[in-house]
Every structure is written in structure tokens, then in C-alpha cells.
Amino acid sequence: MAIQFIDNQPITWRTDWATDSDCKTSNELACTIYSNNDTLFAQWQQTPCGTGSNKLCNPTFTNSNTDLVTNGSFTTNSTGWTLGTGVTRDAVNKRIQFPGTTLATALSQTLTMSAGNYYQVTYTIGGNTTGSITAKLDGTSGVTRFSPGTYTEYIQYTGGTNSIVFSTSGFNGWIDDISVKLNGISSGCWQTAYPSRWQINTNGSITKVPGLADDLTGTINSFNVGSYLKLSFRVSGMSAGSMGFEMVGVSLLDTITTDGIYTYYTTAPTVGNINFHPDANFDGTISDLSVYEYSNFFSVTLKDSHGAIVADLSSDVELFEDKIILKYDMYGIDPGCYVITIGDACGYSLSQDLITNYSFTDATKWNVDLTVPGGANGQTGSVAGGKLTLGTSAIGGYNEWRVTDTVSGDIYPTAATTMVIKWTVTTGAVTASPNIYMNDKNSQYHLLVTSAVANTTYTGTITLSGQQVVSGINPQLRVYLTPAIASRTIEINDFRLQLMSYIPGQMTTYDSNCIEVIDYPDSEKCTQWIGGTNGEDSFGFHFNPNDATPFQIGARVRSMLINPKYSGDINRYSNASGKNIITKSSSGKLYTLFIDYTDEHTHDWLRLAVLSDTVKIGKYSGQANIDYVSTDGDYSPEWPSALGDWPSAQARIEVQKQTDVLYNNNAG
């Protein structure tokens, strides 16, 4: 997970904000304040680790079909082509020159095509001062071209003599680099039953030809089973039909009936494909496809002013799509100053191979130890030919080999921690059904395979608890044979270890601004809670309003509700006798929310809080606070102009209780 921090909230990871109030690094700037009766809210975003490479194979639908044209570049001759009257090959420039006449068949070649399919025809023309040229698949014409350029067009072959034909009308230019490919999905990263029903476009999209249904299946490159995936694509130009979308191992994610950008987040139980299921009438274009893998692994801790961890907040984190939402009850936290530290798991990439030469192609990177117990029974072992071969010719009670990767280096932290590692073992020839183990750093062994058989790939995960650096031990593969058989062998073609959870000591860490916790109820004497809540998504945050504890942009602020005034709305008219009559009236009570001197960072998030659908103002962060709405969209801190660049300012905003309007409908 690559962390992206979201601005304009009480907890910030921006480095340009000074921090303090009573924590005293600068007496003009304040920490974010909470009482130990509040809930601390924070939110940030995750992106794929590293470059975030797209896991989808060929997401731009590059046409990888075989070129049906022979000698389309005319490099040495014009073999394979039939040239019309006056048409010649330019031997100097290695292209075909036209004489400026009108020819129904100026240049042609017989191809192997299937009637009904569309074909991608590409060519380059130039040098002409007059006339035009047109590409045809037998009698079906493409676009007539008048100007120099490289052109790609899609022509349906309806049957005939299986030929690509160029006709000219007074064209005196040249042509080169001619290519004809089936324009459809036939093999490779994308699969479909009927290639002609999906047309590849030059802009990296694909269009379904209406009339008949045909599924489209795309391959997702290797990712970790159970990882969190973001899938996204665009549908455009759709005027009819519908299309289902799913991922292998996941139920139907959606049925699409309109144009738009579609994004899904899902946990993948199996490695597989994405599948589009259009009905016969669907005529849309699919583009901008991506599948990204997220780690969903992070470390969140609360530290005191001495850097000691007070609480692990990881279990207080909720995940929604690519948002990470922290809701931590501060109950029981002693008054004082704290920071939140986030560990960014992308300091160590997901699925990183812990063994460098996992396919046994370099014997110098492996040590085969034949001196362990059982070594007197004629053990042999070698790394050669892309495999590890172990064997014995003597009969004994058991045999054991230890095979060590010599170059991986330490992947273990200096402090004891727990890691999850994915292992994969692929066998070749096997006799005597050995057990296969792995040693960890502390020389404890873990069973990987019981009674291995030939030509089989085994995989699984192991949890290594309390791991830390121990001198001189890299991960070891242990093979253990027990039957008393004279001839015993095993070949291992592949042995991989991949890190599935991260080592906290190797994460990139970020500290928040300072957090000052004060006692409740004493906190009410000088501060009150101000928090904004909204619908699902606002201001770059996800508010999950249906949760028991909805997210808030909120914290404690030195503030007061002052100077109530009463708004009025009245319907009045004068009758014929001059009497004034009121037919309807209403009155509301408005307050000035007065914000005492505070810094720019606090004003940044306060302006979003007071612009929210609901502003909660009161004792603490819970639901007991009174709900208000702002009556004015402006939020203007009152910076003291006479003092120059002053670091703090007061502010005033008018608010009204959401339910505080009184009506009189019986006036008069």
C-alpha cells in the first residue's frame, strides 16, 4: 500500500505545519485537541505499491494477430504482389510507385481470409501531387485517401477471391508498409468465441458489433490469491442492450446499461480472468481497462511525546474502496501530547521473492549440505540443469539434506515480529515419497509437503512468529526421506518464498501533527467539539453515514456559540379597510459560532466542517451533540492586518439548529 494523505482534516501528515499548544514548540500554533471522551477521526488513501503496474494482460487490445500480408515492406523485391500497368517498385526507396493513372487493380495480393470477419488494414502513402487511392478487400472498399499519411482502417471481408486490392484514380504517389490482420480477438490475453463480433480500435478500445451475443474474457497476470483488487474500465457509445461483468471466483459484480466509468473493489479468492457478458443488442465500446493490486497491509500506532507506543490502532481502521478510515476512541488515554505513526507497507513490495535463484539455474547460489544426520547412507546432491537433484544409493533408516540459498541476504527484522510467507515447491522425478520442510531463522522447521509425488506443484502459506535476525542462517529447504530403500531420488525444479505480510521495521513511516489530549469533562471549560458529517462522499472523504459511528471532519476547538438573533419570514397584506393582516410567519434562532485564535491548519478543516451537511457542535464527538447548519458559505478568518503575517486568527460563522424553526400558519 502506497500512502496518499488527504489534506483539510484535523489530523495531518503535512510536514510544513508546525505543531503545538501546551506541548511547546511554538506558542502561536496549536496541536489538534481531543478529550479522552472523544473519537479521533482520520482518513487517508492507498494506491498500489511501486509503479502500480496494471495487472491486466494487454489492456489496450494491441492487435497481436498474424500479419496476413507477405512482403508488405518491399524490402528486396515485390514478390507476392501483382502490379498493375505502369506500377513499379522503387528499388532505391524500397516502395511501390504509381504512375498517375486510374487503375481498378493497381496493386493486389491473395490472402487467407474468412468471410464475415473484419480486418485491420494499415498502409503508408506519400509523394502524390494528384489523385487518390483506395484499399479494398475484394469488392468491399475502405476510405478513399487523397493526402500523404499512415492510415489504419477496418474493412469487413464479405467473400470473393481473398485479395487485398488497391485501386487508384490519377494517383501519382507511392505506398509502403502494408499490413492486414484479423481485427478481432482470437488468442493470447483476450479470448472470445467469435472474433468478428468484437472490433479492435486504434485508440486502445474494443467495440461489440450488435446482433449476436459473445462473451469477452481477459487474462489477469499473476497476483496473490486473496489480495485486494481495483478493477476499472470505461463504456462509451452504448445505445442498446446490457452487459454483465464479473471476475473469476467472484459473483457477478454489475450489469451495465449506460455509458460511464465503472470501478470495483473486490478480494480475489482465485487467480483468473475478468469476463464481459454482453447480450446480443449491446453495441458499446470498452476502453481504459485496469486491474491494480493493493496490499491492504498497514501499521497504525499512537505514540507519546517520548516515542513510546501507547496503542496499536490497526484494528480501529476500516477499509472502504481505496480509503482507509481511522475511528479511535480516546477513552482511557492519559492527558498529554501524542502523534499517530503510519507504516507504509510499500517500503517492501508485495510478493517479493525472498530467494533469488528459485529455479536452480546457478549452482553457485546454493549450498547442498550432505553432512547432516543420515549422511553416512550415501547421500548425493547437486544443483545443475535447472533443478536440484538429491539421492542415495545405500540403504539406511532415513536421509536428510539441507539446501541453503546463499545470496538472498537477511529479510528478517532486528526485532522479533510475525511474518506470513507464501511458499511454492515444484517437483520433477520422485521416488520414496519424501517430506519437505523449511527452516526459519531460528532453526525451527515447518512442514511444507507430506509424501511428495513427481511433477507436482505444491503451494501454501506459513506464519513465522517471533522472527528476528540470527547470525548465519538464510531460509533453508530440508528434504527428509524415511523409507529404507537403496535407490531414492527427488528432483526439485522450483522453490519460491514470497513475502505476504510486511516487516514493520522495513516500512516507511510517517508521523502526524501533534495531538493534545485533555481531560473530560474539564475539556468543556475551554473547548467544544466541532465536526462536519456528510453523505457518502464529499470533499475527498468517505463519510459512511449509515455506520454506527459516521466519519467526521472534527476535533475540539476553543470556541463559543454567542449573540443569538432571530430570523423572521412573514407573509403580510393590507385589506380594504387598511388593516394589516399576517397570514403566515416563522422564526429561527441563529448563533454566531466564534472561533478563538487558531492556526491556518485548523481553519483549513473548520471551513469544511461548517460547510458540511450537518455541523455537530457540543460536548464531545458522540451523537448527543446538537446538529447545526451553516447559513453562509463564506469562512473568513480575521487575520490582524496591523500586525503583518500573523500566525493565528479568530473567525465567526453564522449557524442555525437544523430543527430550530418555529411556524405560525394560523395568523390573522
What is the strand arrangement across the widest sheet? Answer: 44-41-47-48-49-46-45
Indicate the low-confidence ranges by residue numbers. 18-28
Strand content: over 45%
| Global morphology | flat
Q: Give the strand tally.
A: 49
Structural class: mainly beta
For the report, how would you describe the main beta sheet?
Answer: 7 strands, antiparallel
Q: Counting H and I runs of at least 4 residues, what is the number of helices?
A: 1
Q: Measured on Cα atoms, how large is the radius of gyration?
A: 36 Å
How far apart, in Å, are the first and last alpha carbons?
A: 67 Å
In helices, the fraction of residues equals under 10%
Mean pLDDT across residues: 83
Structure overview:
The chain is an all-beta fold. It contains 1 helix and 49 strands. The strands form 10 sheets. A 7-stranded antiparallel beta sheet has the order 44-41-47-48-49-46-45, covered by helices on one side. Strands 2, 24, 25, 28, 39 and 40 form a 6-stranded mixed beta sheet that branches. The protein is flat and about 100 Å long. Mean pLDDT is 83; it is low at 18-28.
List keywords for this structure.
6-stranded mixed beta sheet, 668 residues, mainly beta, 1 helix, single chain, 7-stranded antiparallel beta sheet, flat
